[in-house]
Specification:
It contains twelve helices and 19 strands. By secondary structure, it is α+β, with helices and mostly antiparallel strands. The strands form three sheets. Strands 1, 2, 9, 10, 11, 12, 18 and 19 form an eight-stranded mixed beta sheet that branches. The protein has an eight-stranded mixed beta sheet with strand order 6-7-5-14-15-16-13-17, sandwiched between helices.
């Protein structure tokens, strides 16, 4: 054990600063209330205070800090999407991630690994070429690679042809990365608190006060609050909270499961995803294999785990990496994914005045944390929708102008 760590442990005065101020009572009113203390809500609070000088903000979280989907994802960061709208949006997020540790003065453990989306069929290869062309056109580093190139990038992969689903090629995205999910959330929370934002955990929103189609307050388990504006950022429960505000979202909530193995020495540098096999895997900085499969095939508000998930996942994972067969699964969990019909988010204005939404993140919410926080902060501060998120407005479903990202969503979260 390092001497400084031992000395710190026995020091009664604890010289390090607190991450957050001591808990305080709710004030009677705030300029802005953010419902949801996950990565997106905390990032929005941070950028509102830092970029726009608005710090009279309450972030309300019904459980512990970042205990929802922020704590239940698999931390993959990439921008190799299919539509121009999606690529620009996620690439801005990736650029923000690159300097996030310096920005927040908090180590989020961001590491670029490279991201391989495997193709096992001719159709998957056509999609890979399509995505690569659109990516390169917009300045995003992606290219189609073939088995001889994959063997150099990830020699551990089984590239044999005597398997059920041989690997024909892949879309290679060098900037693909991972970061520590709780590090991102805590970094934003710490930064927001330093600017004066109040973060209230164990504070559930039970209703909204709407007058003349305008939100004026929030009802919570700790009392009522008056406010000027509200941002809803509650992945997994978006439809239920929106129902409190009196409107319906085109969202279906389904469980998305994942698991990790026991820790082993580092052997897997790139992130491996197969949309055809519905499996993805990366190795964490602690040596665990972080793995997931497809979302469950039915809508359900639950975070239970199932044996079927593990059976399907292991069947395909062992075809890709036969030598991991003796690894033990350490833990298994699930999040609740809010899926929209076009596999793109819902951001910006709602039918209720001064009520804003950040929802519909499906399996791709973590990678969007910085850009969502920054652009939703701009929206709340100015009342204007930034061009980069205009295509994700709720009204697109009424205009039949959907942003179809199903081909690039794969299964990576």
């Amino acid at each position: 054990m390092p001497w400084n760590l031992l000395k710190y442990g026995f020091n009664r005065s604890y010289p390090a600063d607190r991450h957050f101020p001591l808990s305080c009572a709710l004030k009677s009113s705030y300029d802005i209330v953010i419902i949801g203390g996950g990565g997106h809500g905390l990032a929005a609070a941070y950028y509102l205070a830092k970029d726009w000088g608005i710090s009279n903000i309450a972030v309300l979280e019904k459980s512990y800090l970042a205990g929802g989907n922020t704590a239940r994802n698999t931390t993959i960061i990439r921008s190799n999407y299919l539509t121009q709208e999606g690529i620009r949006f996620y690439d801005e997020s990736l650029q923000l991630f690159r300097d996030l540790s310096n920005e927040l003065d908090y180590n989020v453990m961001y590491t670029e690994r490279g991201h391989l989306t495997l193709a096992h069929t001719d159709a998957a290869m056509r999609t890979a070429r399509w995505r690569a062309e659109v990516n390169m056109h917009l300045g995003v580093d992606s290219e189609v690679v073939y088995p001889e190139d994959i063997a150099k990038l990830c020699p551990q992969l089984n590239l044999g042809v005597d398997v059920r689903y041989p690997i024909l090629g892949a879309l290679y995205h060098p900037p693909g990365a991972i970061a520590r999910h709780d590090g991102v959330a805590w970094g934003y929370a710490k930064g927001a608190a330093e600017y004066g934002v109040e973060i209230h955990t164990q504070t559930e929103v039970t209703g909204l006060k709407i007058e003349n189609n305008r939100v004026t307050g929030v009802h919570t388990t700790r009392g009522d609050i008056q406010c000027g504006k509200v941002l809803q950022a509650v992945s997994g429960m978006s439809s239920e909270v929106a129902r409190m505000a009196g409107f319906k979202l085109p969202i279906k909530t389904i469980p998305l499961q994942a698991c990790v193995t026991e820790s082993v020495k580092p052997f897997l540098d790139p992130i491996i995803v197969s949309g055809s096999l519905h499996v993805y895997v990366s190795q964490s900085s602690r040596g665990e294999l972080v793995m997931g499969a497809s979302a469950d095939p039915y809508a359900l508000y639950s975070t239970r785990s199932t044996l079927e998930f593990k059976e399907e996942l292991m069947m395909h994972l062992l075809e890709l990496f036969p030598f991991v067969g003796k690894l033990r699964v350490l833990r298994q969990w699930a999040g609740m994914a809010d899926m929209t019909p076009d596999f793109s988010p819902v951001m910006g204005l709602t039918p209720v005045e001064n009520y804003y939404i950040d929802a519909g993140w499906g399996t791709w919410g973590f990678k969007a944390t910085p850009v969502c926080g920054k652009r939703m902060a701009e929206t709340l501060a100015t009342g204007k929708i930034p061009s980069i998120i205009q295509s994700f407005d709720l009204e697109r479903f009424y205009r039949f102008e959907q942003v179809g990202e199903r081909g690039a969503a794969s299964v990576g979260n």
